[in-house]
Amino acid sequence: MDVSESREICKDSAMWKSVASAYPPGVSAWVTELLLCQMAHEERKAILSCVLRIALTCWNIGNFNGAMEIVAGLK
């Protein structure tokens, strides 16, 4: 997966919701796995940027639990 593909995936919010809700261990474990599975630095950077944007959006709409789940996955 190259950076442009990562950015396209990031724009597909329906895909993010379906993947996050289908991941049994929880959002924080999914975020951790998502970042650690990327081999290239550029891919990690693109995914991290997307995940942080999702966390900020959660915070801005009042979904503090979702934002904190994402932050916990970044620990």
UniProtKB/TrEMBL annotation:
Please give the start and end residues of each transmembrane region. none
At the top level, the lineage of the source is Eukaryota
Can you provide one Gene Ontology molecular function annotated for this UniProt record?
A: guanyl-nucleotide exchange factor activity
Q: Does the keyword Phosphoprotein apply?
A: no
Ras-GEF domain residues? 1-75
Keyword Membrane: yes or no? no
Q: Which InterPro entries match?
A: Ras_GEF_dom_sf, RASGEF_cat_dom, RASGEF_cat_dom_sf
Q: Which UniProt keywords apply?
A: Guanine-nucleotide releasing factor
GO BP annotations listed: small GTPase-mediated signal transduction
Q: What name has this protein been given in UniProt? A: 1-phosphatidylinositol 4,5-bisphosphate phosphodiesterase epsilon-1
